[in-house]
Amino acid sequence: MAPAFDAGAGRGKRIAGRTGVDMTVTYFKRYRMEFELARLFREPDLPLHYRLLRWDESLLMAHADAKYRSFRSELDANVFPCLGDREGCRRLMGEIARRNGFVRSATWLIQWCGKGEEEREYCGTIQGIVDFEGIGSIQNLGITPGHRGRGLGSCLLYHALAGFREHGLRRATLEVTAQNSGAIRLYQRLGFRRTKTVYKAAEVACG
Length: 207
What we know:
The protein has 207 residues and is an alpha+beta fold. It has a single domain (9-205), classed as 3-Layer(aba) Sandwich (Aminopeptidase). Helix content is 26%, strand content 34%. The chain is built from five helices and eight strands. Strands 1, 2, 3, 4, 5, 6, 7 and 8 form an eight-stranded mixed sheet that branches. A hairpin with a 5-residue loop joins β1 (9-16) and β2. 30% of the residues are buried.
């Protein structure tokens, strides 16, 4: 049952954490958003000096590292603590890739290519799975801080959605924390519609 409040995040009971740090249970409001794959938007242009990489097992660690650097300082690292931990991101990426519903064609990585090999950097990641309802589910769309504002998220999202459609799916969904207003505006602009509100409980250190 959802809490009786309707805030972006609400504080709950203070508890003693395993490390001796006082923790409090916080409920984060999240929106489930849905997209009709028959109405896929036009493919965005990939900026100069960036390239898209299709899923390959050899790129698992690169996906995990891009995921960690994208989320470690963001609100979602409180909602899902594994996103704020490098090893946690590696475990999560491995679990996603091993799932029966993992969709290779909906899983992409972006690499920035500078003037030399030493300037190359993996800076964006997205993964796709088929959920228990037979609907495409976007997992952890992330862009590292130094590469935001260039349309890379839209590029990743397009290719993930196109991959779901290639896989024979008709609909795709994602979840976004309600306080992430910039992401919500982007998803709505691209054609996602909000279908459900859910609450995710997480333990957060007391300030």
